[in-house]
Amino acid sequence: DLVAKKYKVGDQPVAILTFDDLTGKTPFIKDIRRLLKTLEKHYEYPVDVEYTVNFTSSGKMQVNLVQCRPLQAKGEGRHVEFPKEADEERLIFSSSGNFMGGNVSQPIGRIIYIDPKAYGGLLFQKKFEIARLIGRLNRGISRAKLPVMLIGPGRWGTRDATLGVPVSFAEISSFAALAEVSDPAAGFNPDLSFGSHFFLDLVEANIFYIALFAGKKEVFFNREWLERQRNILTELRPEEAGSAPVVRIYDCDLRLFSDITTQKVILTKM
Questions:
Q1: What are the tens digits of pLDDT across the range 7-28?
Q2: What is this structure's pTM?
Q3: How many helices (H) and strands (E) does the chain have?
Q4: Do residues 45 and 25 touch, judged by C-beta distance below 8 A?
Q5: Distances (CA, A) of 33 to 39, 63, 160, 166
Q6: What 8-state DSSP symbol labels residue 116?
Q7: Pairing of strands 3-9, 148-153
């Protein structure tokens, strides 16, 4: 199926490998189109895939799906009515774009917030200990009883603890929403590659994701409100009291709204 076509560049003969026979003389294109339609039906949204193709000794094609991601968001795109009274006094954050999860109206009953300055000041190994603490908190979460949002600096799931919190997906799997917040002063910025750190897992688990670039004109982030709330970490886990300056837990009555048509997303007091 791999064909070498011969050309000349000046007087120099050149061979160029093509897949003309594969795409023109086999059912390859038809089969891939059917695969994409099957995945699109499952995700309820057009998908982007990475795959490999191998052929068995009998000539049968075998497709291995390496990665699959909805092109924009998962969901049916139902209309969400935003609250009319969502002014800055009630807003925790608002942004235009840089989120995934479709159209949502999601209650948030608790926030776990990683303080960027306190986290950035930790020794390298201590940053990994914070990631393990997030995992222990994750195991105690029931999304049906109490939807929790995790907010932290830089990139969740990075292997480099200087760029964010190096959690595994198993350590955040029970959260309802996940936010990455930029903090240039502390050296943290979200990574919007949407695929290099458990993208597909977030989609499958219906975990809403947003990146907040604090300081941008279209972004409002009320960090001061977060830092004024009473931290209940030591009440929930007295043995973790030493991490209270870094890991802050707040009970709250908030709601997350997003609309993929307008690309608007807000977290507001109810």
A1: 666 778 877 777 888 888 888 8
A2: 0.74
A3: 7, 13
A4: no
A5: 10, 12, 38, 37
A6: H
A7: unpaired
